[in-house]
Design brief:
By secondary structure, the protein is of the alpha+beta class. It contains 10 helices and 13 strands. The longest helix is centred in the first third of the chain and has 17 residues. The mean pLDDT is 88.
């Protein structure tokens, strides 16, 4: 679901405001799965604490950004952990590998982010990695894989990629089925022309198409990929889609105007020619 520019500006004001209040901490606006739903949350990561509460922005809708920052700060101070959580299990790669996933992002725009992380370059994209975790103490969350972690596990980025691929289960939804819930039978005219490809959580799901490209090849042979965000991509079978590559590139640019900068994957479409992916 696309957000209005007003909502995006409100979120960025809050992110900036909380960052100013915690200058020594890393403050991020994250997508978090809670009870099967995707929600946006502010996460404050202070040094010396290895688990951090997520504060959901939906609880502050209609409240101006400055007052929201006041409320978030109060909530954080009353809920942050006083001590670290035991993470000894994380040192054992056998206990970690089944929770390993791909985070596909733009390479050029994330050079600083990738500086201390293992990643695999794929054209102008980068496949970084994260671990999904769940516990009674912190609920559901993720741990970003760093170079230090890979060194501890004695694995390379290539090894991480091959293992993470096995954990990326694709959902492929015909746009006709997706739209039928909204506009009815008229959506049948779209059947077979566009597919939404993501993971089962619809968070950081763009990497699914890279992980499952052989399966997509078997089903669609040649196709275009429109990167609608880091969370999902649109797949258009070449034989059923009349638009040119230039028109698809323009489609990507239009979509990018409706999402926040950190969620943009690329500014152009991709083409799979039956053998390899091309930019």
């Amino acid at each position: 679901m696309r957000e209005t520019n007003k909502t995006l500006e409100w979120e960025q004001e809050i992110l900036k405001g909380i960052s100013n209040r915690y200058p020594e901490a890393k403050v991020e606006l994250k997508h978090v799965v809670k009870l099967g739903e995707t929600k946006k949350a502010i996460v404050i990561m202070e040094k010396g604490i290895n688990a951090h509460p997520a504060i959901y922005l939906e609880n502050f809708k209609g409240i101006e950004a400055g007052e929201t920052c006041d409320k978030i700060q109060k909530l954080y101070e009353s809920n942050k952990l006083a001590k670290n959580i035991n993470m000894d299990w994380y040192k054992n790669f056998e206990k970690v590998k089944d929770k390993l996933h791909i985070k596909l992002i733009n390479l050029e725009k994330n050079k600083e982010y990738l500086r201390d992380k293992p990643f695999l370059q794929i054209l102008d994209l980068a496949a970084a990695f994260y671990i999904r975790v769940s516990s009674n103490e912190i609920g559901e969350g993720t741990i970003t894989v760093l170079n230090d972690h890979a060194k501890m596990w004695n694995v390379t980025a290539e090894m991480l990629f091959e293992i993470a691929k096995k954990n990326e289960h694709a959902t492929i939804t015909d746009m006709a089925d997706f739209m039928a819930k909204r506009i009815g039978k008229e959506a049948e005219a779209m059947r077979g022309k566009q597919y939404i490809v993501s993971n089962t959580r619809s968070i950081n799901g763009a990497g699914v198409f890279i992980a499952n490209i052989d399966k997509l090849k078997e089903r669609f042979n040649k196709f275009y990929i429109v990167p609608s965000s880091i969370h999902e991509v649109l797949l258009m079978p070449e034989e059923n889609y009349p638009l040119s590559k230039i028109e698809l590139d323009n489609m990507v640019k239009n979509v990018n105007e409706t999402i926040s900068p950190e969620e943009r994957l690329a500014d152009h479409a991709y083409y799979f020619n039956g053998e390899k992916l091309e930019a």
